[in-house]
Amino acid sequence: MFTYLFSTFQLLLSVHGGQTDFVVGYPVTLRRGRRMRGSIGYFVNTLPFRARVDPDGSFDELLDRTSRKLWRGSMHREYPYAMMPRLLDTPREPNRAGLISTMFVITDGDPGDPFTEVREPGRRTECAGLGISEFYLPQQQGQFDITLQVHAASARAQIKYNTSLFTEETARGLADRYNALLTESLRTKATL
């Protein structure tokens, strides 16, 4: 599901921005295995993904290319994101968000994770003798120009955007276009 939704997001960005070669970030977990399940902390790293959308290619080709690149990227999931600009020797531009200005996030629930069920509004659980529930804080600003956050369990998506770069109408248009691209890619095997 991640690959499909992420590929569609790349297509959306390419269609909207007119670019065929760009970078999108995505978070990966560093908390792997049962041994880490009881640990508390921020076990997430951001990986850059160089998206290359071929305007004459098919969606299946984009999906296949994305899948292979995500697999290769997972091999380097522990390399610190903060060190990547040095590795690439890219100068810091003060008017840009950094190496990554666009982000794709998917949250899915791990059935063994006690915090999974509290991501549903109104749900409570108990962990280590404490009652836990979600406290939702709406957020529209962040460190990226635009972020698509998909909540897999509830099939909801949210676009977070920099309000000095995007209007609400533009963000709604992007959301509608993303939904249309998802629908179209399921319906046909049309070329990009």
From TrEMBL:
InterPro entries: CAT-like_dom_sf, Condensation_dom. Residues 4-185 form the Condensation domain. Pfam families: Condensation (PF00668). It comes from the Bacteria. PANTHER family: FATTY ACID SYNTHASE, NONRIBOSOMAL PEPTIDE SYNTHETASE. This is Condensation domain-containing protein.
